[in-house]
Amino acid sequence: MAPQLGPHELLHVFSFLEARDLLSAAQVNKVWNEVSMSTELWRQLCLRRWASCRAFPVVLGAQTWRQYYFCRSELEFRVESGRPQDFICKAISGHTGTIDQLAYVSPHEYRFDERASGTEIWSSPEQPAPLVNLVAYPQLQLVVTVDTQGLIMAWKAETGSEWASFSLPSSCSSVETCDHPEGPFLLVACDEGTLYTMTVPQLQVVSRVAVFPHTPVNLTCSPDKQWVFVSAQDSDLGPKLKNGGLITSRTQISASFKDRSHRHFGRVFYTQPLAHPSEDRPPVSTTLPIRKSSSACWAPDEAARLMVLHSDDVHLVITTFELKANKSRDRVNILAQQLASFPLPDSVTPHLMQAHGSQTILLTSSSELVLFTIHGLQLMAFQDHQQPITSLWADADRVITAALDLSLRVYVWNKKDTSPVLKSCYHLLGGSHRWASVDSPT
Known about the structure:
- Helix content is 14%, strand content 36%.
- With 442 residues, the chain is mainly beta.
- Among the domains are: 7-80, Up-down Bundle (Monooxygenase), CATH 1.20.1280; 97-106 and 127-210, Lipocalin.
- The strands form 7 sheets. It has a 4-stranded antiparallel sheet with strand order 1-2-3-4, with no helix packed on it.
- Strand 20 (360-365) and strand 21 form a beta hairpin.
- Residues 235-239, 256-264 and 432-436 have low confidence and may be disordered.
């Protein structure tokens, strides 16, 4: 009689199986059933399929990793199939103006067995000036708002009570949260071109750096929050609405770069020295070897891969850099290595830009969604919208675009292929917002 595998040996063998195989193994006998239900097996399955679910999935309807796997698989099936009964749309009431920014306070990625209710939890007191930005720290249950006069306020998300406040010397141009391993902090840029680093929730300034004097700047943090790219806001190619249309002609984009050749529009900071500055050294940063940069995005599957849209005076170009911090005992130097660069076709006039994986760039050009590799190979192009695209969401599972007519288009990545393949799934008609926007993958 052949010797039987013990639980430890079975666990090792089962670690190579997929979910369907584990379910089949569970039907063999009691021992196989117990091993196939192992928490570690289902945890590894979840992490292989959804790298973002690092925290234990304590959400309604998913108290174990096995339940999480099936709940999220069902959710993805619903998203891909686009059944009308799986979607709920509810307008956010109680506002007299437009909604400029959204942020999630809950630390849980999904709530599988709850239907959207849109119940108001709390509302802040009326502010002296309109709010223009809002970010959240879900693990701290903290919300941070910024108004048009540069007043920053931190709020307790559970009660709505004020935690702290700070006034900038000028209006705020950009805000980024930074959940750094050494502790969370807040990055804020103001219209005078200064970058502030603040503690949260106290909002105490730990460093300030003059980046681009008298020029509003944009901030874009890397996925691991170790880097922040700072670019001049007046060269931004974000969607500009005028008379119900989108200004994205290539002539206008090229003109927006003119008369800026003497100025730098791209600088990368290593965030750790920003949060822990040295008295005798400036923060660690480097200016990228390009002129007149505009939009930028980080590759989600790489710790420090940055794609930058810029101009070489003749073409619009996308250049990809790999950043590295060389650390010695008393000094940190930044090495920016160019990995690839390519000019965009004349037919593409980009106004939104995001990355997928480590090699793929998504661009919106008027009503078109276009995919390129970092080396310039055009992979796919979609012309599903009737009006210009105003917002773009991309993650490891899907892409969602929103257009000026309040419509949404949902795409799903085909993960069975070695190269990125995006499938156009279905169209959702608009709602009651003034402009369509995307802030969630669900």
